[in-house]
Design goal:
The protein has 106 residues and is an all-alpha fold. It is elongated, with a radius of gyration of 31 Å.
Length: 106
């Protein structure tokens, strides 16, 4: 009884295996290996390109371009600003908020 084959698997009357659900095998095949993406264009600091040495809190036109509509400071990843200028922008925005020139939110 221990070595006998199980009847439910070897039953000749049972139908063939049930159809498999649709999977990734049915769709287009993707090649294995590294993905071939184009290299994104490197963002250049706009302030360095315009040769602006320092950002002052009085330069409202420049500072507002680095802020979202809600008043948040945009990150370097989005704006492409270098470290030095991002710190100067953050400091200028915080001064402007304190002086009520720019809103804290909305």
């Amino acid at each position: 009884m221990i070595n006998e084959p199980r009847k439910e698997f070897n039953n000749p009357d049972s139908p063939a295996q049930a159809p498999r659900p649709a999977s990734r095998e049915d769709g287009p095949r993707r090649a294995f290996g590294p993905r071939k993406h184009f290299a994104p264009r490197r963002k250049v600091c706009r302030l360095c390109a315009e040769k602006i040495a320092t950002v002052d809190y009085k330069q409202l036109q420049i500072i507002k371009s680095f802020c979202a509509d809600g008043g948040k400071i945009l990150s370097r990843r989005i704006t492409g600003a270098c470290c030095k200028h991002q710190r100067q922008i953050a400091k200028a925005v915080k001064i402007n908020r304190n002086l009520a020139i720019m809103p804290y939110s909305g």
